[in-house]
Structure to design on (107 residues):
């Protein structure tokens, strides 16, 4: 699935789930990767789109299990954008630090 379509679907699911989301950074509409910022009560959790060992889509908690502050999240995003200028960055309100869609999360 093209990245731009996937982003639209994720934002729609977020709205339906009461977890509004925004595009913080637009990436390549066809082949860009996706990074999620999940804003909770204790801070921000950053999830990176990856492939699990079996090849299935998954999400890795890039900043660890413990939420980080905005400055740490911003620094992580900046590093990733340097490696992948086609990267999409989405942010969702997520009190439980989980995405608004079904996702396999790798810690």
């Amino acid at each position: 699935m093209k990245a731009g379509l996937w982003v639209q679907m994720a934002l729609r699911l977020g709205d339906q789930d009461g977890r509004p989301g925004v595009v913080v950074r637009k990436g390549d509409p066809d082949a860009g990767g996706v990074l999620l910022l999940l804003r909770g009560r204790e801070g921000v959790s950053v999830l990176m789109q990856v492939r699990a060992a079996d090849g299935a889509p998954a999400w890795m908690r890039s900043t660890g299990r413990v939420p980080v502050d905005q400055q740490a999240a911003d620094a992580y995003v900046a590093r990733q954008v340097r490696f992948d200028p086609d990267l999409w960055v989405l942010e969702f309100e997520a009190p439980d630090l989980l995405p608004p869609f079904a996702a396999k999360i790798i810690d």
Q: What stands out?
A: The beta strands are 21-25, 34-39, 44-51, 57-61, 88-93, 105-106. The first helix runs from residue 3 to 16.
